[in-house]
Amino acid sequence: MTSFEQQTIHPQDNPLSPKGRFSRLSYLAWMFITGMIYSFALSIVIGIAAVALLTSASFDISTLATTGLGIFAIALFVLVVVVFMIFSICISIRRIHDLNKSGWLWLLFLVPIVNVIFSIYLFVAKGTEGANNYGPLRPTEQTEKLLGILYAVMLAIFIVAYGALLAWAISMQNQLPNLQQIGQSSNSTVINSQLENDDPSLENAVIDDAQPADANHENGGTHQ
C-alpha cells in the first residue's frame, strides 16, 4: 500500500480543528495538553501583572490599567482565555462527532449541572465503530494514549480527594453542636471540681476574722 493510499484512509488532520473525531483517550490527552499550556500562559500573565504593580506608584490592582505594562497584561489575559476557550470547544466538538452527534451539543457546557453530566458522558461514552457522519475513525496515537491515561488517573485522584474532603467537612459540621456541648460540659465539670476542692481552712479563716469584728461591734453597742 502506497503512502498516498494510507493518507487517503487516515488523512492527517489538525487536532485543534473542530472537523474530525476524537476518541476518549485522544480527547483526554488534548484536554490535558491545552490545560497545561493554558496554565503556563496564565503564569506568564500573572508575572507580567506583578511586575506592572511593583513598578507602579501604588501597589493597587485597580491601577493596573493605568500603566502600559498593566494594559498589556490585561490584553494578554483576555487573549489567553479566549484562545483556550476556542480550543476547548473545538476539542469537545471532535469528541461529540466521534459519538455521531451534532457538534452544537457543546452548548450544554453552558448549562449548570448539565455541563457536569455532559462532561462525564464525553469521558466515558464509546465512539461509533468505523466511519460515521463526521468522518472516518481517527486512530489514537501512542502519545495520546499515555497522556489520556495519565490525565484520567489525575482526574480520578482529584475526584476521590475532593469527595473525601467534602465528606469530612460535612461530618465536622454535623458534629460541631455535639463538640460545643461537650466543651461546655467539660468547663462546668472543671469549675465544679475546683469549687469542691477548695481549701476549707480559707473558709474558717474568713469566719474567724469575721467573729472578732462582730464581737467588737456588739461591745461598742453595749458601751453606748
Structural class: mainly alpha
| Poorly predicted parts | 1-9
User: Main beta sheet: strand number and arrangement?
Assistant: none
**Total count of helical runs of at least 4 residues:** 6
Q: What value does the average pLDDT take?
A: 81
- Ends distance: 137 Å
Count structural domains: 2
Q: How much helical structure, as a percent, in the residues?
A: over 70%
Beta-strand percentage range: under 5%
Number of strands: 0
Secondary-structure element order, as H and E?
HHHHHH
Estimated radius of gyration: 36 Å
Query: Quick one: overall form?
Result: flat
Would you summarize the structure shown here?
This protein is mainly alpha-helical. It has helices at 3-9, 24-54, 68-98, 114-124, 142-196, 200-223. The protein folds into two domains: 12-140, no CATH class; 170-223, no CATH class.
Notes on the protein architecture:
Residues 1-9 have low confidence and may be disordered. 71% of the residues lie in helices and 0% in strands. It folds into 2 domains: 12-140, no CATH class; 170-223, no CATH class. The protein has helices spanning 3-9, 24-54, 68-98, 114-124, 142-196, 200-223. It has 224 residues and is an all-alpha fold. The relative contact order is 0.11.
Which descriptors apply to this entry?
single chain, 224 residues, mainly alpha, 2 domains, 6 helices, disordered N terminus
Task: Present the secondary structure layout.
Layout: H1 3-9, H2 24-54, H3 68-98, H4 114-124, H5 142-196, H6 200-223
Helix pairs in contact: 2-3, 2-5
Protein name: DUF805 domain-containing protein
Keywords: Membrane, Transmembrane, Transmembrane helix
InterPro entries: DUF805
